[in-house]
Design brief:
With about 130 residues, the chain is mostly helical. The chain has a domain of about 35 residues. About 40% of the residues lie in helices and about 0% in strands.
């Protein structure tokens, strides 16, 4: 056999193998449909922060004066920067007396004065200021 005939036989064999592999692949069942990467993700609950940020972006400049928008933007910054969530402090509790059954007039220090107000002044939150960049 000369080289030209051997090349033709090799080319015919290669084409036959390629056609056979294509036919087998086309008849194979689609196994990729069961693969987790191609399946749709289950619907999760929408993020309320994302919904609030969308609402704030839709109201435009009025969002800079909206306290809910300011809170949402602060929470978004906190999440983005990876800071821990602020710990809410418990409400202040009025101090208790050591001897609640003792009369207040028996106190030698405050005999003639009225009982003092032991609660602090109420703090009133002012309007939040927009962030300046």
């Amino acid at each position: 056999m000369d080289g030209k005939t051997l090349a033709r036989v090799g080319a015919i064999a290669f084409i036959a193998v390629a056609i056979t592999a294509t036919a087998i692949e086309m008849n194979r069942e689609d196994a990729s449909a069961d693969a987790p990467a191609t399946q749709g993700r289950p619907a999760t609950a929408p993020d309320p922060l994302a919904a609030e940020l969308l609402r704030c972006s839709e109201i435009g400049e009025a969002g800079t004066r909206d306290p809910n928008c300011l809170k949402a933007w602060a929470e978004n910054r906190r999440r983005f920067l990876g800071r821990p969530a602020p710990v809410s402090s418990p409400s202040p509790v009025a101090p208790t007396t050591l001897f609640p059954s003792a009369p207040t007039s028996a106190d030698p220090i405050h005999k003639d004065s009225a009982p003092a107000d032991v609660t602090g002044p109420a703090m009133q939150a002012g309007p939040a200021q927009p962030e300046v960049r």
